[in-house]
Fold this protein.
Amino acid sequence: MVVRRVDRVAEPWGSRTPYGPGEDWPVRVDTHLADGIAPEDVDRWVQSASILHSNGDGIDIAVKDDRIVGVRGRAVDRVNRGRLDPKDLYGWQANGSPDRLTRPLVRRDGRLVETDWDTAMGAVAGRTRELLEERGPSSIGFYTTGQLFIEEYYTLGLIAHGGIGTNHVDGNTRLCTATAAAALKESFGCDGQPGSYADLDHADTICLYGHNMAETQTVLWTRVLDRLAGPNPPRIVCVDPRRTPVARHATVHLAPRPGTNVMLMNALLRELLVNDWVDHAYVDAHAVGFPELRKMVDDCTIERAAEVCDVPAGDLREAARLIGTAERLVSSVLQGFYQSHQATAAAVQVNNVHIVRGMLGRPGCGVLQMNGQPTAENTRECGADGDLPAFRNWSNDAHVEDLARIWNIDPMRIPHYTAPTHAMQMMRYVEDGSIRFLYVTATNPVVSMPELRRMRSILSQDRLFLVVQDLFLTETARLADVVLPAATWGEKTGTFTNADRTVHLSERAVDPPGQARSDLDILLDYASRLDLRDKDGAPLVKWSTPEEAFEAWKECSRGRPCNYTGITYDRLRGGSGIQWPCTDEHPDGTERLYAGGRFWSRPDYCESYGRDLVTGAPVSPVEYRALNPDGKAVIKAGEYLPPHELPTEEHPFQLITGRTLYHFHTRTKTGRAPELRAAAPEVWVEASAADAERHGWSEGDLLRITTPRGEVTARLRVSGIRRGVLFLPFHYGYWDTEAEHEPGTVGRAANELTPTDWDPASKQPIFKTAAAAATRVRATDGTPSSAPTTTGSRPVDAGVPATRGIATALVHEDSGGTGARL
Ligand SMILES: Nc1nc2c(c(=O)[nH]1)N[C@H]1C(S)=C(S)[C@@H](COP(=O)(O)OP(=O)(O)OC[C@H]3O[C@@H](n4cnc5c(=O)[nH]c(N)nc54)[C@H](O)[C@@H]3O)O[C@H]1N2
Ligand SMILES: Nc1nc2c(c(=O)[nH]1)N[C@H]1C(S)=C(S)[C@@H](COP(=O)(O)OP(=O)(O)OC[C@H]3O[C@@H](n4cnc5c(=O)[nH]c(N)nc54)[C@H](O)[C@@H]3O)O[C@H]1N2
Ligand SMILES: [Mo]
């Protein structure tokens, strides 16, 4: 038995457990308990899964005296086999934070004051009813998240679509995985990951496109590291303008100019075709659109891409050769591709690689159009992102009728006259006053949406009635008319689904603080106060517990691709999570989709008819029928267009934004865990050594970064980023205390700088290319920036002290191989 105590801030991925191709990934159980608590002190362990990323790691929550005192990875879970991410190891402490919201708040004479639930909910339901009478359902909008549970999304979707009848429903998944959904719909007619994490056990080649998996899905990356440490390791291709930990392990690292992904992909595809690295039998039998692809990429030579992307031609050729000669290829795509102006066109090309190479539906052959948030998949499945539940097609009347049958309402009550309103458009409607009521659940748009000056002015309008349901008084909650205190992970029961379709149950371990209530309970209260009814006069929402909501959702998913009918709460208890579809025929779930080239893309069954990748115009049902009558995979591509905002003399840099390993989003949870807070306490800006030298800047200098939208001040980290590019982590919102506010600084949220602009097909905003200027405000006194050294922000200056955990950061790792417990 191998037991180690590891500082998981200093060593985020922990100890290696090497393994070879086709073998099972060994077990390693990670445990972290509050200081002074020994395993034998724990009263009970309560089953759950991770909530601070999309990986879906199985977790047991340690409870003592009805308080959460730690976590342990679940050895039996297929996803993590006992391992946990640093955010999960330490982040649970936020639940017990003394500044949790414990009572509802309402605005009185301009100030938020505490009130009781009846007053708060009376105001929320009252304003909804008034607006429905005065202005109709289009004056009501819902902006939700990728962090609630299935039961909550399905209830919200029913209330909004079936009860109120508004088309203005979307999630922050628009900022996150709208492109994943769009790309899967374009290629396979349906959302849902074709591949499985287990494909990493078999792969000989792994490509990561704009995905810093090492920092954003650390446990999945641990699986890759364990393969790299074992016999016959896979080859890694990394496409990222920064020298991330992924790039450092890559066989080939392509560091393109931001915003040129489509040119890069088109050239890689052309190279596959030129060398005939094509599975013609597969393409002939199972795909449409191959001849058009050949034409589309014809002029995208390696030399042209080398110039446009500013990547060596030899590296591009080598990457194409690795992909072209792979026998088991796994690709993963994330925000470096999704948060850009041609997001869907770029992501779809990765699907095309797998179609032309016939690399789908077999062990080691998978595409992961990744999710980011823990429950983003469910926002999309349950119709809380505007799509209709269970991947029903809003432009197919038969699908709308089927949904109306399940909900027992008239089909005309479900808005489907046009595409659902996307989040960026919803904010525009709030801005111009047609939406007068916005109900925000579990998201913090005043930090996470683009162009914050505009966001603040939109959300602080008097005529808008803003409801914010959160754990904390966030930047957004401070602007609300009513703030509703929510229970969170560990304090409520529900299910959710990770990026590879694995469904987990998360049980209530402790009571929520004060009067906080679960999002489900709050939504049920809202529905009952609105007195929403079905067509027979019975209550529209027919459940009152999470398990009843889950059972209702199962019925809604019956016969659809995301079929949950074989899953019960009891089946999820005790063992591993289960991958959908899970049915009577496949009672243990389904590891990979599309085996044997069978797709869900038939015109009468598909979730979407697709869009033009360049303009975003929807494809009509008639056109789709002509294109894909037999339900094959669709090969589609778009021509490259340059980014909308290119560097100028005044704004000579390209600014990209993203994440660090130690924080989650707007830090409402990770900022309240001492180990994580200390690991990355303050915003920084990354620039290359070449740019630093040219401008005479040094590590630790305070820089002012400006775009036409605003400015941010941050200390410089000279890192391995490509020249001409600046990187800002987007985690840091307002300063928590005045003491933190460095003199001479103005703002620190990256989104002060980002533009209001999006991908035409998926409507996902562009967070990864803006033209920016940088000037030095103050030279360093020798103190380096506080950016982590263990990650993509690793300094080029070897003299910067290494990131280490504080005293309580030690984690118990047990890689006995048997899952033996402490
Ligand atoms: N630690 C941590 N983990 C997380 C989260 C978190 O906040 N913190 N959030 C979760 C969520 S919701 C999400 S969506 C995921 C996101 O996970 P990722 O997508 O992996 O994270 P990002 O840092 O947003 O972006 C990934 C990379 O894109 C690169 N990039 C920027 N511009 C371009 C470009 O033009 N082309 C290419 N090829 N690459 C580019 C950046 O350098 C960056 O390294 O992470 C999830 N996991
Ligand atoms: N510049 C830039 N901006 C970005 C990105 C980027 O890469 N660059 N990435 C984008 C992406 S991918 C994402 S996903 C978004 C994330 O952006 P947000 O969704 O705004 O980020 P979070 O901080 O996760 O906000 C979630 C909120 O929900 C609350 N919460 C947590 N659990 C619960 C619960 O159970 N119930 C309720 N009611 N509330 C809860 C938390 O306290 C928190 O305030 O940011 C986007 N914005
Ligand atoms: Mo995300």
